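The passage that follows is intended for readers who have already worked through the single-chain material. We present the inputs for a multi-component assembly, then the predicted structure in tokenized form, and finally a short commentary. You are encouraged to pause after the input and sketch how you expect the pieces to fit together before reading on.
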Amino acid sequence: MNARIQTNAQRGFSVKWAVYGVVLIAAAGGTFALMGLSRNIQQRKDEAKSLVLNLAKIDETTTDAKQWGMNFPSHYDAYKATADNERTRFGGSESMPIGDGKTAKPVSKLETDPLLKTIFNGYAFALDYRERRGHAFMLHDQRETDRVKLKPQPGACLHCHASNVVAYRAEGLKAGAPGTALEPAQSENGMKQITKGWEVLAAKPYGEVTALVDHPVSCIDCHDPASMQLRITKPGFVEGIKSLAKSTDPVPHLPSIEKWRKGERTREYDPNVDATRQEMRSMACAQCHVEYYFKGDEKRLTYPWHKGLKVEQIEAYYDELGYKDFVHKDSGAPALKAQHPEFEVWSQGIHARSGVSCADCHMPYQRVGAVKISDHQVRSPMLNTARACQTCHHSDTEEIKARVETIQTRHKDLLDRAEIATVDLIKAIKAAKEAGATDEQLHDARALQRRAQWRTDFMNAENSMGFHAPQECARILGEAIDYARQGQLEVAKLGLKPKAAAAGALVPSVAGAK
Amino acid sequence: MRWAALVLVVALGAFAGAGIFVFDHSQATSYLSDDPKACVNCHVMREQFDGWARSSHHAAATCNDCHTPHGGLEKWQMKAVHGARHSYGFTFDSFHEPIQIKADSLATVERNCLRCHEELAGNIGPWGVQAHARSEKTGTDFQSGSLTAKATSCVHCHAGVGHGPIK
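Having made your guess, compare it with the prediction:
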């Protein structure tokens, strides 16, 4: 009897202890989890405070983004990531290792698209023309391209390819501009210093000028170090936007310009004073992503916006001046070269008209913990579709990407046709020249080549593959094809001997045969 | 054996204390109210709050007027579901970005559209307005009662009335 009672008692004790043990472990584990949760909650609250630890002192002389990055580490990390190598179907960034496997140069466009060699024949772009890649490489690639190594280029080229605010100001102060190096760059004195330095360095040899800088575009080129406010520091843009404001081209997507136009015009349009915050989110990029030329012997970087931003308005401006970038080696035509006109083309599209800025798609908001920052890894939105597009376009990312690729594929097809047509015309004029045609006889055909080539190149140099303004881009390429074929007809009309020269002018290459 | 009970009491007490602390630290009581400020406890919701402040419905509706069913057990059920999702998502950083509404929440929103706008919009679609999921791919259709027809979504066209497009 006692044994049984003992056994029962023993059994009871075991169960009781087991229960005690489980409850203890559960309570301990639960308390642990609660404390972990509490820590997470505190972490989120701290993140939301968006504290900027001013570990590094930054001022108007701090060119190195690394210094700014000590205070803004998340932005700096993203900025460094512009060195990343990710392609999209028509864009993105790429460097392929060549030669020793350590040197990475972007793929040559002249090799992937040999028609360009003919189109640019007589100009440095026929020597070397590579795929663009991230901001991190802008200075390095400019220094390394054969266009700069094999051809003498002016210091004006540095305006867009480096963090040059400090260098321009130093040069400007040396040349007698007022003020000190620490005043805000966008102040009156600051802008005078930048402009003077820029003028002084423009005509000097590139090699000499590039030695004054170390970094690609950096924080200081767009941000005031005291307030982090966006600002314009590039004198080429300041002058260009002044010309645009004075023109009559309607710019409903830039309401501050419309407002200035309706005002008293007691002073020129000044983006640092007049532009809205949202406009600045485009203008900061428009400092460099534009068409330009170097005016005169002083090589004054000029944005050709005096008649407006559209391709034919820029052409009209150049025509009025009788300006040409080069004489085509095969045809003798006075040709124009276009450079990355993203701002001009974006301005014609629905996104600009709807108030969507460059930064909205190319630097969309990124959540880091509980804080939202602008993503400073400037790149193709196709690599970031959810954040870049879905805030406004509530569709699946796959659907969005498919839509973009449809637009870009159609644009590429038209672009190919325009290039083929332009090359056909070049060949026709060349053959006619060889058959003895005079300059007077070839004048109209050459003028048409100028038109066709300008439009084709405007679209070739633009980096959205049609997306920034699809219908406008299709229009431009339609005109390019039309002008090129008209030019061939002009040559054919000459009725030259040998007949082959005239007949050859009429036969188009098979579209798509490249 | 006494000490065992003591240890347990201490452990349970610690658990309870931690629980009360977290309850307070997480501002849990604020979620029992309808005050929009409670929704901005988490600063990721700042844009939505600011957007609402400038929206057409600012004077007519608060967050809960659109995002929770009205009155009764349903409201508290939804609050609990939302709370669980929010807590999990924000603790583990596991939600889609930009933030996207779930099918059942969207259905709630659109039923609330009807609550005020029934006279005007009640006849849209074959069986009246029903919410359906934003993504065609998931193919989820919210069923109102037993009716399953896919109908027009209010916010597909009227996306900005609550708290505007996010920039």
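Commentary: The radius of gyration of chain B is 20 Å. The helical segments of chain B are 2-25, 36-39, 46-53, 63-67, 72-92, 103-121, 154-157. How closely did your sketch match?
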